[in-house]
């Protein structure tokens, strides 16, 4: 596609349920990032994938959060046993190579509401 | 610790004014600096990317500069319009093995007619 695509755009879930958020990066982009933006807060880094290298998971807030990237393309962020504090906008970005030298492009985000 | 700071946090100006948004960073060993725009309830739109070897980039009414030695970047918006109203964020990936973009908290801009 022309840009980074995220689905769903909105998700309402009950506390304790698991959710999966999907990100389709720009074709050919080897780097993929997940960020979280809570209401009125800045962007919080979650995880970074670069090609076939081991992902940088240093930003994941708890072991309830996990992410995978299949075939170097589509990525799924999974949140298990959701809590109300997980409510936020989850943003995905991709870049042609590492962020060290290329422009990052963001999707429109998935707004997650845990009730 | 790498930090990115944006001043001011909010700005309200009348239409037609030229304005400057500021971004400062603690580590001069950055590889590049990127400016984004975020409209309410939306994702981030990339505006400009300045490589560490460059001093400025221009796109239409936008001009971004980078001064690594002083740890500063500025985004200049000429002849502001109500459609420029949004939150503007700067971000940089730092050296030392970090690949993630470190974001500032943003400047919320309102341009009124």
What does this structure look like?
The complex is a heterodimer of chains A (115) and B (113). Helices cover 0% and strands 47% of the residues of chain A. By secondary structure, chain A is an all-beta fold. With 113 residues, chain B is mainly beta. Chain B has strands at 4-7, 10-14, 19-25, 32-38, 44-51, 56-59, 62-67, 72-77, 86-93, 101-103, 107-112. In chain B, the strands form 2 sheets. In chain B, strands 2, 4, 5, 9, 10 and 11 form a 6-stranded mixed sheet that branches. In chain B, strand 4 (32-38) and strand 5 (44-51) form a beta hairpin. The A-B interface holds A 4, 6, 31, 33, 35, 42-43, 45, 48, 50, 56, 59, 91, 93, 98-109, 111 and B 31-32, 34, 36, 41-46, 49, 51, 89, 91, 93, 95, 99-106.
What is the N-to-C succession of helices and strands of chain A?
EEEEEEEEEE
Q: What overall form of chain B do the CA principal axes indicate?
A: globular
One letter per element, helices H and strands E, the order of chain B comes to EEEEEEEEEEE
Number of helices in the DSSP assignment of chain A: 0
Give the total of beta strands of chain A. 10
| Spans where pLDDT lies below 50 across 5 or more residues of chain A | none
The average pLDDT value of chain A, as a whole number, equals 92
Which structural class do you get from the secondary structure elements of chain A?
mainly beta
**What distance lies between the first and last C-alpha atoms of chain B, to the nearest angstrom?**
41 Å
Strand content of chain A: over 45%
Give a quick account of the main beta sheet of chain B: strands, pairing sense, barrel closure. 6 strands, mixed
Q: Work out the number of β strands of chain B.
A: 11
Low-confidence stretches of chain B: none
Determine the most extensive contact between two protein chains: A-B, 27 and 24 residues
